[in-house]
Write a structure and sequence with these properties.
This protein is an alpha+beta fold. The protein folds into two domains: 100 residues, no CATH class; 98 residues, 2-Layer Sandwich (Alpha-Beta Plaits). The chain has a three-stranded mixed β-sheet with strand order 1-2-3, covered by helices on one side. The termini are far apart. The model has no long low-confidence stretch (mean pLDDT 76).
Length: 207
């Protein structure tokens, strides 16, 4: 605050600019490396590093403007903006770390992708329930119950589930998919659903 009220001239501007540019370049290269990683946390780290890159770019631009114009009050104003950005980034990092330890569900986008894939197979006499997803650190897990006509052979049900699992893994790379095959007309297969919903599905399938 004192420097904001009583601005001071910048010292060693050249050294500060060089250091900021080098830091921004290193963060940019690491962020690009993390972006290519196929897990859920590394891309998030890349996002935070890119935030640092843009912050460093702002600092470089601010220092250059101060050096060219002599408006020394801009320096502490930029420092305050950087401090706020660091605080917000720290809060986001802490929140993400805690959620990773608590094994939360996958994000809304991933869940909608999975539901969309499963819904497409309804025309092939596949219904699903008990869909559960879990994010544990960098790993994702997906499980659901697949219901098919009871008169199907084991081979026919297995072949359909293999195709479903393949499509889900393509939408959520690296996630193991666990399935449980059940006959759609067996009441025991619907224990985690309400009777009304079970009856609606069975009637729609013609059982």
């Amino acid at each position: 605050m004192p420097r904001l009220i009583t601005p001071q001239p910048l010292e060693q501007v050249g050294t500060g600019l060089v250091a900021s540019i080098i830091a921004a370049a290193v963060n940019f290269l690491v962020a690009r490396h993390f972006s290519a990683a196929a897990n859920s946390i590394a891309p998030s780290d890349a996002h935070h590093l890119m935030t640092d890159v843009w912050t460093s770019a702002g600092v470089v631009a601010g220092i250059a403007i101060v050096a060219l114009t002599g408006w020394t009050r801009l320096d502490p104003m930029i420092a305050l903006c950087v401090a706020v950005n660091i605080l917000l980034t720290g809060v986001r990092l802490l929140r993400r770390s805690l959620l990773g330890l608590l094994d939360t569900a996958l994000g809304h986008t991933e869940q909608e992708l999975i539901k969309g894939i499963l819904s497409r197979y309804a025309s092939q006499d596949l219904y699903y329930h008990a869909l559960r997803t879990r994010q544990a650190g960098v790993r994702s897990f997906i499980s659901f119950h697949a219901l098919v006509p009871g008169e199907w052979s084991v081979q026919r049900g297995h072949d359909l589930i293999v195709r479903v699992e393949r499509d889900i893994r393509a939408a959520v790379p690296g996630a193991p998919v666990f399935t449980h095959l059940e006959p759609i007309n067996d009441p025991a297969a619907w224990q985690d659903l309400t009777l009304d919903r079970r009856d609606d599905v069975i009637r729609s399938k013609g059982y």
